[in-house]
Design goal:
single chain; alpha/beta; Rossmann fold; 2 domains; two-stranded antiparallel sheet; 10 helices; 13 strands; about 30% helix; globular
Length: about 350
């Protein structure tokens, strides 16, 4: 009788460790708003702002950028935003044009602009992030922490490496990519190049069967944009590349993975740290942490994620109000005055 009992207990423990967790959405206790910005190239992005109470508000705003195939209102993102607001950090969970699998980002010359994971041009997200930072600054926040979750980390790191925006006082890689992708498939590059040249960039390409971890399809324009990513940006930490983009980052960097079936481990974080340490120029500070019992979307561990960000943000050097905050890049756009209140608790 003991053997079946051991098997049952073992199966139960495995289910607890690897089984799906129910998502529980907490109620917001502070003002929440739907907010919108317009990028320099006329794309309107939506987001949610979780405002910290005046009695505990910190002078740093958090901007959370979603991962591949998701959006600003994903339940765990909402929970993290609410938990950060409770800790004094006004937080914006923000869409870029890459949200969801597909979306219609706008219209130009009578033609719809397709975007999202299947059709979006990822390198154009720089304009989206610039608009969100401008929006936060218009609310009085001159110190911004950019968090990129999963594929959102590619957008965040590309923005700061290109702009070196002095308003950004910290970057967070939330389960973001560490190792560079494999070289682009030459056949797919050739086909994508042909379709884009023929003004058929929206046509979908099917990934070969061996790429099981990839999405099934991607548009020609999307794939060609990925294929053209500079080596130093694709291999951000310099694992294989001599001049990685991390050398252009000056602000502190925080990186983490969850311990419950996330896309990386403690060993990967060690690789990140050692790769950065080899560079002659690097972020002013690099810290890594493991989010205990957290899966890739941090289900059930949202408070732990918020606490990790809040404690780290306390240590960030923030220029005084009188100090110059000139960015190396000109502001991309004035914030669009489209703000809709959804709660005033």
């Amino acid at each position: 009788m003991a053997a079946p009992f051991v098997v049952i207990v073992g199966a139960f423990l495995l289910w607890l460790r690897h089984g799906p967790r129910p998502i529980t959405v907490t109620e917001g206790k502070f003002p929440e708003q739907l907010v919108y910005v317009r990028s320099a190239d006329d794309i309107v992005d939506a987001g949610a702002m979780f405002t910290a109470p005046k009695t505990s508000a910190k002078p740093v705003a958090i901007i959370w950028i979603h991962g591949w195939g998701t959006n600003f209102y994903y339940p765990t993102y909402t929970n993290i935003g609410r938990a950060l607001a409770a800790r004094g950090y006004t937080t914006i969970t923000a869409n870029t044009r890459m949200h969801d699998l597909a979306n219609v980002a706008g219209e130009r010359y009578g033609k719809r602009i397709r975007a999202g994971g299947y059709w979006g041009v990822g390198s154009e997200q720089t304009s989206d992030l610039g608009a969100w930072i401008d929006f936060a600054e218009s609310l009085g926040f001159r110190n911004i922490v950019l968090v990129g979750h999963s594929a959102g980390w590619a957008a965040v790191r590309a923005y700061q490496a290109e702009k070196q925006d002095t308003r950004v006082v910290g970057l967070v890689s939330a389960s973001g990519q560490i190792y560079p992708n494999d070289a682009p498939d030459p056949k797919m590059v050739a086909e994508a190049t042909r379709l884009v040249a023929d003004h058929r960039g929206d046509e979908l390409l099917l990934f070969p069967a061996q790429h099981r971890s990839y999405p099934s399809y991607v548009s020609a324009s999307t794939y060609l944009d990925i294929a053209k990513t500079p080596p130093g940006l694709m291999d951000f930490y310099g694992i294989r590349t001599p001049k990685p983009a991390v050398t252009r980052i000056r602000c502190p960097l925080l990186a983490w993975f969850g311990t419950r079936d996330d896309v990386g481990t403690a060993k990967d974080l060690e690789k990140l740290t050692s790769s950065i340490q080899r560079q002659s120029s690097r972020p002013s500070r690099v810290e890594t942490v493991l989010i205990k019992n957290a899966d890739h979307m941090y289900t059930g561990e949202e408070t732990q994620v918020a606490e990790t960000i809040a404690q780290w943000a306390k240590t960030l050097p923030t220029p005084s109000a009188g100090q110059s905050r000139l960015s190396t890049a000109k502001p991309q756009t004035k914030p669009d005055p489209m703000v809709q209140s959804t709660a005033a608790n």
